[in-house]
Amino acid sequence: MRLPDRGRSRIVLIGASRHSDPALPDLPAVARTVTDLRELLTDPDRGLVPESNCTVLLDEGDLRTVGDRLRSAVAGAEDLLLVFYAGHGLVGGRRHTLYLALPDSRWAAPEFNSLEYDKLRDAVLDSPAAAKVVVLDCCFSGRAVGDSLAGSGEAGRIEGLEVAGTYVLTSAQRDQVALALPDEEHTAFSGRLIRLLREGVPGGPELLTVDDLYRRLRAVMSAEGLPTPLNRSAGTAHSLALGVNRAFAATAGPELRGRHARAVERGKAGDWAGAAGQLRRTVEEQTRILGAEHPDTLRGRQSHAHSLGGAGSPAQAAELLRGLLTDQLRLLGPDHEDTLRTRQFLAVNLGEAGHREEAAELLRALLADRGRVLGPDHPHTLRTRHLLARNLSMSGAREEARALLREVVSVRERVLGSDHPHTRRARTDLAELAEVGGGVREVR
């Protein structure tokens, strides 16, 4: 299962919310429905196509213009073609043909001023698209009642709507009307479709197929006492993904955080290479499911980069951390703990790559910021001071390094106690630095 290729797919949204014939009531909900569907389906992050590949024909009354723009869009589709209509469904002629009302359609004689479904069907059939989906939010029979989308006429037949190799989804069965409820901003069917696309299906799969949407819509609308949708499919169109399940992240997020934590522990245990591979795969899934700017994804990138340094590639780690730092400054701000941690990891890996003086300068600035944000005695502030001492020692500034380590030992003895592992580590490093030619060991 996959999402359609954005560049090779096309969407056509047709709607009629205003009518010149008094026998066809205006449907303001249709305009909002088409507008909101366009925004959802062309969303830069989670939509199906870019705006340039979405044709909107809202309240277009000229049948020739509708036909020309429809055929142009249909011809350009190679992967997915999705055609959606919302408005009055009219039935006319001796064959009880289905017509899709346009602004100047006539209730009594739709044959000459409406979009005949058979012509829409033929246009879709002519498309080179690998998968074709037709969604009709209108009714096929019954008289207009209240704010229904019904025109007058005899019963239409869903069998006559089938298109080979496509999936046809309708808002009501042949003996039901499709509703526009007075207290809702969308039509009843499309409003619930929009809600599914916006909010997702809790407990559902990562990607929602058109069949997933149909089954959920049928259950929801039946439970609410609304007209139940109908579908027809041919080939494999039913398994086509029409969107990311936005509720899936709520389920996947905790699992991905657990995988992240286990990989970090793997690195701390000494298997940095294994941790790096595990974190790379986790970040790929976080990016796809949660989004590139989600805090969990940013933390995954941070841990992945740092693990590469632990595995022996500090220069590569530093390059990744620089890019991450740019994103965190923009998304989280300079004083966020994740941003400050990335600055420390960057300094560590620069130092390991041989850039000790640059690392020391970064750590000086970080020490001031952590002292300001967290306080001078905070464990993270003390860790930064410890790392600064190491890099100063390695670059030859041993006296300054010794002074910093004395401060670290003094504060840790006071705050953590003499027997705390961090206190003992600082005392050991101070003793090693006192030896001729001695240096401080790495603190990763």
Describe the fold and architecture:
49% of the residues lie in helices and 11% in strands. The strands form three sheets. It has a six-stranded mixed sheet with strand order 2-1-3-7-8-10, sandwiched between helices. A three-stranded antiparallel sheet has the order 4-5-6. It has a two-stranded antiparallel ribbon with strand order 9-11. It is an alpha/beta fold and 444 residues long. Strand 4 and strand 5 form a beta hairpin. The chain is built from 14 helices and eleven strands.
The total beta strand count reads 11
Low-pLDDT stretches: 140-165, 173-178
Taken in chain order, the helices and strands follow as EHEHEEEEHEEHEHEEHHHHHHHHH
- Rg over CA atoms: 31 Å
Termini separation:
42 Å
In spatial order, strands of the major sheet run 2-1-3-7-8-10
Biggest beta sheet summary: 6 strands, mixed
Give the rounded overall mean pLDDT: 85
